[in-house]
Amino acid sequence: MSLEIERRFLLENDEWKNFITHKTFIEQGYLSYDMDDWIVRIRFNGKNFKIALKKHIKNFTNYEFEYLIPSEDGEKIISNLNKTIKKERFFLKVNKRNWIIDCFKEKNYPLKIAEIELKEEKEEIIIPNFLSKEITGLRIFSNFSLTKYPLSKWKNEDLKNLNKN
Fold first, then answer.
1. Which domains does the chain have, with CATH numbers?
2. What is the mean predicted confidence (pLDDT) over 97-103?
3. For residues 27 and 83, is the Cβ–Cβ distance under 8 A?
């Protein structure tokens, strides 16, 4: 069984750039319509295509099963989606831990989200000083939601509600 346990944060400043080890460009889209059911994602990272099946279990733990698919199939699927998101993904090493920073493009620009994967939910982490608000579990920030309701479409009330949390 594959589990994904991750915490997510907004960024406070650009100090994270000092910790970059490498980067990639990602385009991804969804073949699902309901966040409460299994989510089916296709992702292209500039080299290959992967299909992922994801399902929320509890708190910040999900089932995640990911499979490589032939490029020809991936190109056909992603080119027939109405909406995708594009982002530049930066890989960081901070305090001997691996972090990623997603810098969203197009309709989700200038959003930047940091993620760290954990072995268990209770795992302690050191929060780097370049992070600000924790957004773990806030659905509006999920990649699935950002595909359907991008940052550029957010209303003032969305932003006000965010500041209350």
1. 3-164 (2.40.320.10)
2. 98
3. no
